[in-house]
Amino acid sequence: MSKMWAGRTSGITDSIADDFNSSIRFDCKMYRQDIRGSMAHALMLGAQGIITKDEADTLIAGLEGILNDLDSGALEFDMSCEDIHMFVEQVLTERLGDVGKKLHTARSRNDQVAVDLRMYLRDEVDEISGLIRDVIAALVSQAEKYKSAIMPGYTHLQRAQPITFGHHLMAYAMMLLRDIDRLSDCRRRMNVSPIGCCALAGTTYNTDRRLEARELAFDDIMLNSLDGVSDRDYCIELASALSTLMMHLSRMSEEIILWASWEFKFVELSDAYTTGSSIMPQKKNPDMAELIRGKTGRVYGDLMALLTVLKGIPLAYNKDMQEDKESIFDAVETAGMCLKVLAPMLETMKPIPENMKRAAQKGFINATDLADYLVKKNLPFRSAYKISGQLVAKCIAEGKVLEELTISEYKEFSELFEEDLYNEISLETCVEKRISEGGTSVKSVEAQIEYVKSKIK
Ligand code: ARG
Question: Which among 226, 227, 239 has a CA at the least distance from the CA of 308?
Answer without folding.
Answer: 239
